[in-house]
């Protein structure tokens, strides 16, 4: 097979399962650097494209225990850049509660420190509670958040272009430190931000860090189609994933990009046993330790409605869209309807995978499933979540990855050194170099 | 001698001298990770208390070539935390153009990643140009900047106290992840910020990262007296430094703190030769490569006035205070007056040391000078700047530090593991633990 799949690992604090941290072999992940180094190095040994750290700028007190406490993602990426040499390093940063100059600068810095391995998952922030941490009355509405995000990413790109390649001359003889003709002043004035520039760091090795996105609403998809290079999908059903991927490819095309300019990466949570039985026992063991209140909070958070208001043993009710997290809500309601789940069953399903697709079986079965989704075009790759750390993450690398390599579906070694190269994404040329014309240059 | 001095290294991009980067043995420092790792590891081998990275959130185009381009400091500290194990890691972050939640979080993260080695140099931002990068009409006035800074640091401390020691229980048997009684909600509402909390990371290993400050105006000194644990001074004359240090100790006392709760660290820029002659030749070599325009821009920046308006070969004019960088302005005008310098002489003086005190001589002479200042009480320690990197920084560690150790003025090995321990500063107890009373606890 010509095309090979992309694989990343989603590292969610203590694991994706609400009770994952209680497993006998579980270690606390969120503030445990040696553990994170161990798992990330394992992912690198498996030649995975990237590791990804989700984030929120509030304490998810009411939700997942593994998401309450964690390292700040930008400093974490910088630290992990020193403990690895090839794997991509991706983190979420919201565009709602920070300044584009600061974030563009931090990502440029991480891209330099890691020699071209940074990725930015652009989110607009799914928790309205964050507003109270940032001197705001309220979380901006969905539509406005995306308008801000669009402007924000455009500014970041403009700032990353501040110094064209070759701008830093450093000619000791002639005493020329920089070439001012290669310095570009952004001078952005827009509805939400005014940012002059230039940025005080040279262009990132990748041109721009890779832009990830996970929006699932129509507005989110428009943004992704125009801007994102990797999109996280949370589809649970293959034909829905295919429809989603094609819709996204259409949007990319409509925005003047190639259909394959966006890689669709589906989140999956594999639970692997030596036999299917054993895998099911692991799920049962996790379920037995589950705090059902916490699980209901996770589900309520994903659906954007307090689900305690509904009867547990009746079918999942129809819900109006909430303006938050529409993606997960659509996917979870869809699988509940298709599989005729009760609310209790959906709660337990979502508890294992944090709302992502659950795969329970042998390594061979997991590999079969990923192959099937990949060949169908429903996914360009997968983002693997682990119920807890480090065991399940290591097991995926040890048992599933070699099967995918054997089948010619995944690389046996890195062929490039940057995240863009792993993902088969082009390095964006500097606009001035690309057009050959001179941009607005400061005097 | 009982009391020993504190030593840190100031790493200013390509070096403190405007022409430092042109020296034959100079390497570009600002975006050169291997070079920074080498110098920081050397400082650690010399058992220095800390390395410090200055910062600004704009491109100092008109000023120092070595300050134009640099790593973003928080990501840089996180990376260097992985390359070192004992030395303190300090960076400047302005309180004018960022959100306290984000910065408190990043510093907590660095303190965890480095196991208690983070320090924050709180500045209000000395360049008015930064405003244009942050959707602002203008740089807030001096007084308001300090009012913001005070509120900002108080919020950061409140956020660092979100989780009292022992809050993260992680009892797998009982299924208790956190102890809610040890979680504290800040609920800050003030003139500049409203920040609810709690922070989504546990209390930093040091309680709070060490608070550095470098303000020199009366307003800056009030802030430092009440809040700072280390103060950078730029005094050029010993009796002025002593007066400054005593004034600061008075202010600390007035704020209800111990006189020695604040360590005064004087910035010095040593140029070391095997003989005094050789040291002077190095200064002359640097001067010969100096871009006099750039040097005048550095001086203008330090003085807060465009000095090109004044005659070069006449005495330095009297200038009204500018609202920017009053500290450097006062010190430089003071030494100019005392040494009866012309504007040209002051320009060349400031060019070598970036406005800090210049020491030209043998390692023995440099050690003598530092000993003298230290014994007089004018300084609790010194922050060493190098004209360029890595030679002069390494020479200081190899030649001056052993002399200070021999004289009993500096440690021969680390006795503690955190920056607080190196500096002899107490670890702030959690307010709830300190008073024994229960704080405002979220329901
Ligand atoms: C794999 C995956 C990872 C996500 N990571 C984050 C995250 O780290 N932080 C966040 O606020 N939202 C995250 N989301 C949520 C999305 O950003 C988005 O808010 C959600 O999918 C709803 O889409 P919409 O905003 O277009 O309605 C993630 C979603 C998926 C599928
Ligand atoms: C050693 C030293 C380091 C400094 N580092 C910075 C810095 O990194 N960023 C900055 O904006 N100002 C820096 N300053 C300037 C001070 O923060 C402060 O603005 C200046 O001393 C003027 O004092 P004032 O603000 O009280 O008028 C530094 C000053 C000294 C002496």
Report on the architecture of this protein.
Two copies of one chain form a homodimer. With 443 residues, chain A is α/β, with parallel strands linked by helices. Chain A has one domain (6-271, 359-435): TIM Barrel (Alpha-Beta Barrel), CATH 3.20.20.30. Helix content of chain A is 39%, strand content 14%. Chain A contains 14 helices and 13 strands. Chain A has helices spanning 33-45, 73-83, 100-113, 142-160, 218-227, 238-254, 276-288, 292-303, 326-338, 343-353, 363-376, 391-406, 419-423, 431-435; strands at 6-11, 50-53, 88-94, 118-123, 168-171, 176-178, 188-189, 194-195, 210-213, 230-233, 263-272, 357-361, 381-385. In chain A, the strands form three sheets. In chain A, strands 1-2-3-4-9-10-11-13 form an eight-stranded parallel β-barrel, surrounded by eight helices. A two-stranded antiparallel sheet of chain A has the order 5-6. One flavin mononucleotide (FMN) is lined by residues 54-56, 92, 121, 123-126, 214-217, 220, 232, 234, 267, 325-328, 383 of chain A.
